[in-house]
Amino acid sequence: MFKEGSNRRGWSIALASALALIVGQGSINVFAAGVFLKPVSQELGFGRGTMAAAIGVSNLMAALATPFFGRLLDLHGVRRPLLVSIVLFAAATTAMCLLNASPAMVFFLYALAGLCSVGQNPTSYSKVVTRWFDRQRGLALGVTLAGVGMGTALVPMASEFMIRSLGWRLGYVGLGVGIMVLAFLPALLVVREPTAAEAPHMHGAGSSGTSFAEAARMWRYWAMVAAFCIAAFVINGTLVHVVPMLTDRGIPPAIAVTAMTGAGLALIVGRLFAGWLMDRIFAPYIGVFFLLCPLAGLLLLGSEAAYPWPLVGTVLLGLGIGAEIDLMSFLIGRYFGTRAFGALHGTMFSFVMLGQAAGAGALGWTFQALGSYETAFVGLEVLLIAASALLLVLGPYIYPPPARIPQTDGAIAPQGLSH
Question: pTM of the full predicted structure?
Answer without folding.
Answer: 0.84
